[in-house]
């Protein structure tokens, strides 16, 4: 079971996630692969002081990458999309 600071690995700030933030108040995070939805919800609420209304998770497969003749593989990781209560924001995404 991951700890509070290891549950949320990093925020994912992409063009697609920025559009979702502006339209639907959704934020995207990379989370620990073994983290459950209740653990993600409590970690976000405690770290950022906001109220979470919904959590969606998906496992992202690692891609095969070539380096010359060698073929390597990137690791798989877990993504969480979090919806916040109306009026709540996370300052990391607003910069």
What does this structure look like?
- With about 100 residues, the protein is an alpha+beta fold.
- It has one domain: Alpha-Beta Plaits, CATH 3.30.70.330.
- About 25% of the residues lie in helices and about 35% in strands.
- It contains 3 helices and 6 strands; from the N terminus they run αβαβαββββ.
- The chain has helices at about 5, 15-25, 35-50; strands spanning about 10, 25-30, 50-60, 65, 70-75, 75-85.
- The strands form 2 sheets. A 4-stranded antiparallel sheet has the order 1-2-6-3. It has a two-stranded antiparallel ribbon with strand order 4-5.
- A hairpin with a 2-residue loop joins strand 4 (about 65) and strand 5 (about 70-75).
- The longest helix is centred in the middle third of the chain and has 12 residues, at about 35-50.
- The protein is globular.
- The mean pLDDT is about 90.
Briefly say what this structure is.
Helix content is 27%, strand content 37%. With 95 residues, the protein is an alpha+beta fold.
SSE series: HEHEHEEEE
Relevant CATH superfamily:
RRM (RNA recognition motif) domain
* Low-pLDDT stretches: none
- For the record, the count of structural domains works out to 1
- What is the CA-atom radius of gyration, in angstroms? 15 Å
Helix percentage range: 25-40%
């Amino acid at each position: 079971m991951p700890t509070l600071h290891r549950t949320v690995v990093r925020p994912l700030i992409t063009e697609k996630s920025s559009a979702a933030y502006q339209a639907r108040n959704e934020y995207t995070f990379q989370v620990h692969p073994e983290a459950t939805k209740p653990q993600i919800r409590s970690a976000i609420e405690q770290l950022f002081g906001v109220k979470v209304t919904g959590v969606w998770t998906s496992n992202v497969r690692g891609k095969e990458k070539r380096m010359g003749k060698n073929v390597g593989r990137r690791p798989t990781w877990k993504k969480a999309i979090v919806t916040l209560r109306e009026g709540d924001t996370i300052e990391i995404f607003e910069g």
